[in-house]
Write a structure and sequence with these properties.
single chain; alpha/beta; 28 helices; 30 strands
Length: 989
């Protein structure tokens, strides 16, 4: 019993020990929680913040429209635990505010334990969130989706377009850029390279490539954009709903949309709410210029065919090593020529010729096939696109006007006025019979300009570097000839520039409706022909052609256009009388042509006659009183001593709408008769265009005060040369040829005449040459220069400044776009005195040459007005020390000259500085050319400004002697430096 009691007592003692130990353990644990309270709080809040950051990231980066249900549930859990963490945080802060509570171990340990438990829950949610975010981020649209893009050669024309677009995209004022050009010029290649461009990837959060097919629709385009954004595309959603979803997805993001191959007008706001996303920008590509305009492009870039050098390099790269095999390269050059500089065609043709390897015979055979457009892979594809452009023209008149361009050589500069006259003569621009307008010829020319603009718009014709010309690409010309051969009544015999010494055979003449044999070596023509269907005959610049057979024109009763200019003919045969349908006769520059047959009077349909540079007297054509357009030289007024041979002839042309008298080197007795001639010209009531030389201001006054045409104001366009013109002026005037501008050239005159001021009010382009009696341009009255767009000042030795701001009270020269000053010996500044707002705000080009006393270019206040200045050229101005004078521009803003693209500085021996430091941004500067400026030791650039600078040209020694604030600047600019070739003045204006 005693043992039992003892055992029971022992067991009880053990239990008491265990309970006590448990109690001690629990108490110790509580004490540990109390000790870890602060640490548990910190751990909890650190993990909670990570969780909240993850949640915010998911909600911010991923549209709520795309978050899955599972992720939504996770976000709800995060919101719940956030509330619980906040409650614990509040309790902890309350404990800290009341130190006496720290003595309460039990509640304190509970709070610490709850924090530790909550920390574990937060960690679990955090890990779940990381997994979900990884999945969700994988579903996010990548910033740039790289696509295959053909390589573009550095410094090529396509590379320049890409760089220009990148520059425009960096301009905050530009949102939409339009790239346009004919099929095959490389627009898609440009767009693809833009998509992959590293600089663009840095500019935008996302780049969207969205080509448009011919079968496009708003829904399809929206679908492509939504797929790129990884938004669910719902077939039942409306266009408006899709646009809202796209706009919401892009909200707050910098986005670039690349829309390629646009055939029709697209409302981008309807597609994606573009107007609501101010950070978004768009680059469009279309073969139609007007599409880009209709879509409100801020900048337009015309993509033209490759140069011969670029085209051959592209072909060589794609064909491979076989091109270096003997005999292959000459054939390859001919192959490339057939491709007309079109990258698309070069690419396709190169694939064909690559298969020919080194077999010269196969290359020659393939070249012949290419010339016939047979069996050449890729040609059909290109022709299909080009033919589409032609077939899509909305009138037969436009189609035949395009085909007419094939009569001229490929890439040949065709004078626009001449081309429009041919179109009218052929009947492509019919007169509006419902309107009895006495200016029908001008109206037809206006309609012709509209047609020409449409053809340029669809890239079937292209503008030339020469202002007054257009041209046709070789591939398009070949297509036009092929189309014309398939049309029954439009057979072309077009063999210009082929070195022909003998004319085509009689059969070829017989079936042709239009013949072009210009620029050949023809010495003779057939004696008699049967070609009653012939409408146009172009024989110009056959310089060996001295005579035309007597009966040559006998069967050409339907001929509308005859061009014999710049041949060596001395007369025309009497069979000229057969040309009863002739409307345009061009004999200009036939320097041996002395007389016309009396049968000229039979040409009762003749509208246009050009006898400039001939020895024909105006008396011989005085019978053609129905002429609409007459072009003559001063010498055509004759050299005889009897004034009746010269006077009373002009006034006979009562139907004349356009009259041109050009200056030639033989002025003869012009001064004696010009007053009478001016009076006769003033009597022509139907005049709409006049080119005339007035030796004295008095003669101009006769015309201005008596001409009904002048009194109509804007109805008359003019090119007036006033003053005593010497031979040195001719070249100046030629360079001063601005199409459609009213031009006034004042030469070797003196003072300021009220008549000049009156004409100046209607003038767009003004040339002041060798003038005396004026010390500044503003002496002519700034109020008379409101329409002036171009101004040239040359050899005016008394001019000291251009504008004196002290005598004006408002902005002046507000429309002026180009200012050229040359050889003005006393010019000291461009502007003196205060500069009023609005002055020179449209100036884009400033050229200063041979002004030895010029010291100030940008006077105080001027530079702030030059918001549009793009091209600055300064040459042989030996007193210039600073381009931008610091003393005149102390508070110059860093954003000054925001549009300046090119800077040319030549032979400025005292030049020390372009600008005193590197504070200017130069945001648009692309090219600098410097020569013979040995004192210029610093350039105004640093690491971050002039971001678009791509070209610096100068002498190698000058470059090596430049001083740099930081070697990093030189390293940045070294790749764009190009040593100047060894020649005195290599830079053109």
């Amino acid at each position: 019993m005693t043992e039992v009691v003892a055992g029971a007592a022992g067991a009880a003692a053990v239990e008491v020990y265990k309970d006590g130990r448990s109690l001690l353990t629990s108490a110790g644990s509580r004490i540990a929680y109390v000790k870890d309270l602060k640490k548990n709080y910190k751990k909890l809040m650190q993990e909670a913040r990570k969780l909240w950051e993850l949640r915010d990231g998911i909600e911010t980066e991923i549209s709520r429209l795309k978050i899955s249900q599972v992720t939504r549930e996770w976000i709800v859990k995060v919101e719940m635990i956030t509330r619980e963490v906040r409650e614990l945080e509040t309790k902890y802060n309350d404990e800290k505010k009341n130190p006496w509570r720290l003595l309460r171990v039990w509640p304190h340990s509970n709070l610490s334990k709850d924090m530790a438990d909550k920390h574990g829950q937060v960690q679990i949610l955090l890990e779940e969130g990381k997994l979900k975010r990884g999945v969700l981020v994988a579903e996010l649209p990548e910033p740039v989706r790289k696509i295959h893009a053909p390589k573009i050669e550095d410094n090529s024309s396509l590379h320049k377009v890409v760089e220009d677009v990148v520059s425009f995209l960096d301009d905050k004022q530009i949102r939409i850029i339009g790239i346009w050009g004919r099929v095959g010029t490389g627009k898609t290649t440009i767009m693809q390279n833009l998509n992959n461009h590293k600089d663009i990837a840095k500019m935008f959060d996302i780049v969207i490539w969205a080509p448009v097919s011919k079968e496009w629709s708003l829904k399809k385009l929206q679908g492509a954009i939504m797929q790129r954004l990884k938004l669910n595309v719902e077939s039942t959603a409306s266009i408006e709903e899709n646009a809202w979803r796209i706009s919401e997805e892009l909200k707050g993001k910098k986005c670039l949309i690349l829309v390629d191959e646009i055939f029709d007008l697209i409302d981008l706001h309807e597609v994606m709410g573009i107007q609501d996303n101010l950070e978004s920008k768009v680059v469009l590509a279309s073969r139609l210029r007007d599409i880009c305009k209709d879509m409100e492009a801020d900048e337009l870039i015309n993509v033209k065919p490759l140069s011969d050098h670029e085209a051959f390099n592209m072909f060589k790269e794609k064909v491979g090593r076989s091109i270096h095999f003997p005999g292959i390269k000459p054939v390859a050059e001919l192959v490339v020529r057939e491709c007309g500089g079109l990258p698309l065609l070069i690419d396709r043709v190169a694939r064909t010729f690559r298969k020919k390897e080194r077999n010269v015979s196969l290359w020659r055979d393939a070249l012949n096939n290419l010339r016939r457009w047979e069996n050449t892979q890729g040609m059909d594809e290109v022709l299909e696109f080009l033919r589409f452009c032609y077939d899509n023209l909305d009138s037969d008149a436009k189609k035949v006007c395009f085909l007419y361009g094939a009569l001229y050589p490929e890439e040949y500069d065709i004078y626009i006025d001449y081309l429009l006259e041919c179109w009218r003569a052929e009947g492509f621009i019919p007169a509006d019979e419902s309107i009895h307008d006495k200016n029908a010829f001008r109206d037809a020319r206006d309609k012709g300009h509209a047609i020409l603009d449409d053809l340029i718009n669809v890239s079937l014709l292209e503008s030339s570097e020469k202002r007054k010309c257009v041209k046709m690409n070789k591939v398009l010309r070949d297509m036009a000839l092929k189309i014309s051969s398939q049309i029954g009544d439009s057979k072309f015999l077009a063999k210009p520039c082929e070195g022909l010494e003998e004319p085509p055979n009689h059969e070829e003449w017989k079936y042709a409706s239009r013949i072009s044999l210009m620029d050949n070596e023809l010495c003779n023509l057939p004696e008699a022909l049967e070609c009653c269907d012939l409408l146009t005959l172009l024989l110009q610049r056959n310089k060996n052609l001295c005579a035309i057979p007597e009966f040559f024109f006998k069967s050409m009763c339907n001929l509308r256009v005859l061009d014999l200019h710049d041949t060596s003919i001395e007369s025309l045969p009497s069979s000229l009388s057969a040309l009863i349908s002739l409307k345009g006769l061009y004999l200009n520059s036939c320097s041996n042509l002395v007389e016309l047959p009396t049968q000229i009077k039979e040409l009762v349909q003749l509208e246009v006659l050009d006898i400039r540079g001939t020895k024909i007297s105006l008396v011989q054509v005085r019978c053609l009183i129905w002429l609409k357009c007459l072009r003559i030289s001063l010498s055509n007024f004759g050299t005889g001593s009897h004034t009746q041979n010269k006077l009373g002839n002009v006034s006979r042309f009562v139907s004349l709408e356009e009259f041109s008298v050009v200056i030639d080197s033989s002025k003869q007795s012009w001064d004696k008769i010009v007053e009478t001639i001016a009076t006769e010209v003033a009597s022509l009531e139907k005049l709409t265009s006049l080119q005339f030389c007035f030796p004295k201001v008095d003669c101009l006054e006769i015309f201005v005060t008596t001409s009904p045409a002048w009194k109509k104001g804007s109805c008359l366009t003019f090119q007036f040369a006033v003053g005593d013109h010497d031979s040195t002026c001719f070249q100046i005037l030629k360079s001063f040829d601005y199409p459609s501008y009213n031009r006034l050239t004042l030469v070797n005159s003196e003072g300021v005449n009220p008549v000049i001021s009156k004409v100046l009010m209607e003038t767009h382009a003004f040339a002041l040459i060798n003038h005396k009696g004026a010390s500044r341009l503003s002496d002519f009255g700034t109020e008379n220069m409101e329409n002036m767009l171009v101004c040239l000042i040359e050899r005016c030795d008394e001019i000291e400044t251009i504008i004196n701001g002290d005598v004006i009270t408002k902005g002046v020269l507000e429309c002026l776009e180009e200012l050229r000053i040359n050889n003005v010996l006393k010019l000291e500044s461009i502007w003196e005195g205060p500069v009023h707002p609005g002055s020179l705000t449209q100036l884009t080009t400033l050229t200063l040459t041979k002004c030895p006393e010029l010291k100030k270019i940008f006077s105080n206040g001027v530079i702030q007005q030059l918001l549009e200045l793009q091209h600055l050229r300064i040459e042989e101005c030996h007193q210039i020390e600073e381009i931008i004078m610091h003393s005149e521009n102390i508070e110059l803003e860093s954003s000054s000259l925001p549009r300046l693209k090119t800077l040319v500085l030549l032979d400025l021996p005292k030049l020390r500085s372009i600008w005193v430091n590197d504070s200017l941004k130069w945001p648009s500067l692309q090219s600098i050319k410097i020569s013979m400026c040995d004192r210029l030791k610093r350039l105004p650039f640093n690491i971050v400004n002039a971001t678009k600078l791509r070209f610096i040209e100068g002498q190698q020694t000058w470059w090596e002697e430049l001083v740099w604030e930081d070697d990093a600047v030189k390293q940045r600019l070294q790749p764009v430096f190009h040593p100047q070739l060894a020649q005195a003045f290599p830079f053109s204006v």
